[in-house]
Amino acid sequence: MRFTPLLCLLAATTFAADVTPVTVDAARFPNLQAAFDSVPLSGGIVMLPPGKFEITEPLRIHTEDTRIVGAGAATCIINKNEEGKPALILRPPTLDQDKKAKLWRIQLADFRIQGQEKSGDGIFAESIQEIYLSGMSVDHHGGHGVQLLDCFEDPRINGCIFTYNKKCGIEIINCHDIVVNANHFEENQDALHCTDSFNLCMNGNNVDDHLRHGVVIENTYGSVVSGNMIEECNGTAVILDRDCYGITLSANVIAHHLEGGIDLRDAHGCSISANTFTIAHKFSVRISADSGRNTLSGNNFCNTHIGAAQDKRPAEGKTPMSIDEGTGILLEGPSHCTLSANTFSGLSSAAIWSTKPCKGMMITQNLATDCGRKLSEGQGWFVMETDKSSLVKDNLESR
């Protein structure tokens, strides 16, 4: 049975009895909420048919061990709510009375959730353990594409696409052992926020054209962001702030950002290695006075040079995004950092420069060529103010 009419779906007030897990064909129910409410407390699978389903109130999933599966983008839930409410709410029904209430193993797969400017999040999940999202399309919401709040145990998001959401593609608060893998993010406000969490594993994602920042990580530790393509943010590609520590940022391509590449605002004991920075307009890496004990090695900082004295983009253009650009490492007074074995080429800026005194720094064996394009003639490419405990030597300026 093909289920195609536009529906206005109402939230249910009763829950099914606890029996053997079931398979639910949503096409046999008057609306999607009725299909979700038919799942027993022991769980089951709900098969969503193709069609466009308009809602004005959130759909609620309130049973654990439950999987909701659609027919790909042909199954489209459209949130018409104009009061900032989410399209889907995943939340224990007793959470208001019992703050320790949890639901386990809710899975969403292979359907689209479409919002509009006055709607809230696409998916709001609270206290859902081992949540799993796969193959979802979540777009055009007035809030976040997905918000995970206190989904502490092992959240997984992979193979999804998050586009044109007014806030974040994914907002993560108080979670751990998080996997965000092989997703697309396009033209959200920011791609991903991870706050008050630990053990984020963000790998192999494509992040493009964001209105502000790419990845913002705050008060989080023991995480890895690697193998991502992060391009064209109007702000900064990656920000570490508010007591981040023990994080590795490695093997990312960080390209074409109006503000900067990686901003260590408040980060300690972090490794920045094997990344490629190109066309970052103000800085490729910035390390603030609130950051220290970090290592930056084996990175490449470059412009659009393609050999034979040619740059792919012109030196001047109608918009900043259309021109050639490259910048290096800006030090704003950090302490006890190692900067070694990096390559700097074709930069408008110096390779490494400081605006405030730095303490206990080791800056060695870096190579710079064709840097300082927009600096005064004769200005150095390694220009740092450091204390006597610092070691700055064997950096090559190849002019």
Automatic annotation (TrEMBL):
Lineage: Bacteria, Pseudomonadati, Verrucomicrobiota, Verrucomicrobiia, Verrucomicrobiales
Protein name: Periplasmic copper-binding protein NosD beta helix domain-containing protein
Source species, domain of life: Bacteria
Keyword Transmembrane helix set for record: no
Keywords linked to the UniProt accession: Signal
A Pfam family this chain is assigned to: NosD
Signal peptide: 1-16
Gene3D superfamilies: Single-stranded right-handed beta-helix, Pectin lyase-like (2.160.20.10)
Domain Periplasmic copper-binding protein NosD beta helix: 162-308
Organism: Prosthecobacter dejongeii
The keyword Signal appears for this protein: yes
